[in-house]
Fold this sequence. Notes:
Elements: H1 27-35, H2 38-55, E1 58-60, E2 69-71, E3 74-81, H3 83-107, H4 112-115, H5 121-125, E4 147-154, E5 160-166, H6 173-186, H7 188-193, H8 202-211, E6 221-224, H9 233-243, E7 246-248, E8 253-256, E9 259-264, E10 267-271, E11 273-276, H10 299-304, E12 309-311, H11 328-336, E13 343-344, E14 348-349, H12 353-361, E15 366-370, E16 379-381, H13 387-399, E17 404-408, E18 414-419, E19 422-431, E20 433-436, E21 440-441, E22 447-450, E23 466-472
Parallel strand pairs: 3-23, 5-13, 6-7, 6-11, 11-12
Antiparallel strand pairs: 1-2, 4-5, 4-20, 8-9, 9-10, 14-17, 15-16, 15-17, 18-19, 19-22, 20-21, 22-23
Domain Circularly permuted ATP-grasp type: 78-451
Organism: Leeia speluncae
Protein name: Circularly permuted type 2 ATP-grasp protein
Amino acid sequence: MHALTLPPAHIFDEMLLPSGVVRPHYQRFANWLHEQTPQELKLKHQEADLLFRKVGITFAVYGDESGSERLIPFDTVPRIIPGAEWKALEEGLAQRVTAINAFLHDIYHHQHILKAGLIPEEQVFQNAQYQPAMQGIDLPNNVYSHITGVDLIRHNDGNYYVLEDNLRVPSGVSYMIEDRRMMMRLFPELFARHMVSPVEHYPSLLLRTLRQSTHVDDPTVVVLTPGHYNSAYFEHAFLAQQMGVELVEGRDLFVKNDRVYMRTTAGHKQVDVIYRRVDDIFLDPLAFRADSMLGVPGLLSVYRNGNVVLANAIGTGVADDKSIYPYVPDMIRFYLNEEPKLNNVQTWMCRKPAELDYVVNNLADLVVKEVHGAGGYGMLIGPMASKQEIEDFKARILANPEGYIAQPTLSLSTCPTFVEAGIAPRHIDLRPFVLSGREIRMVAGGLTRVALKEGSLVVNSSQGGGTKDTWVLEDESC
């Protein structure tokens, strides 16, 4: 039998009630765990590590002198979500992404929400991710974010909250799929005991979404990667292979007669949809950064004329900026005339003098983030920072208030996790992937990231986090 460590009393644990009693949807897993010895679990954990190394599932860490690539740690204890709970999440995610796409269409067209005074114009027009070149361009189905990764956390009140929206090339879906494959290989008996919703069909859903994003009858789809030095290159290659489409770099494509073509061994072939994993400013050296070697000269002109689809659209990043995030509930009310089904985390915008004053006087209790930051960098976790770190960060905020937002230090839920000392609670989040086309699609689940350091709230892989398989149970009685 493997003993479970109880989480702190003020933390919501996904598997255990505060009394130590197992939650109903984890009962079958707990029964199985009771039958395992610590030695058996350790061997399985080591086998998973070895298999991931063989497959080559790695990511690059920029500036890491110890080596160019790392393995993202995989945890063998799944995060389990009851079917009814997932259904509510799914409805909230679809609502949120629908509103964000409506917002993006609006700001590049009539700007009704700005004229209504719900969002300050400068928050949009002065945003580094806002692309004036997109003004007035009509996109198929009015979809800007075809692939959205929404980061969710569960607070100690038991409710889910949206931490942030990832619309610029959200990554991690390859780990969601490979984590499931690993669990099915290591623990087939667990899947005989549980009705777990599949995730393996995500690539086919993605391909269908991309193919339906254009009016072309039989479109050619490609995945555009910056190259094998990119931190998420494994995922780019993985998704291209799983979808059965070409993985290309900018040098493989060229523009001719207002169309985009791909160089192939059989000659030139027109490309209709580009799932691009390259940031806006590198896409076209004629329109953005002249020194970019990653993009395709003339691509923007073809795109503006409607002769190629880019997923996600250029200029989409303005909606995943942390300074725009606080307004998403207003977007839902404005465009859909509905109340948000998923709540935001309370957020203070340092650009507002009163909120700035509150933030700088309460830094020890808050999490402060750069509005353009990502990957767990450029942030302050007040309760874990030294007095000197707080003073240094205060100076940075006061020098550039517009560049920061602050949020309360949330008690991210925990989930039992295999660590050196055995199985112990570790903090987690959840990133479901929402596909938007003629309709909204998503697989049941997402990528669960886990902070492997005891007490840590930072789940990002670049900061030492790992991943778990996410099970959504189909039999809602469990």
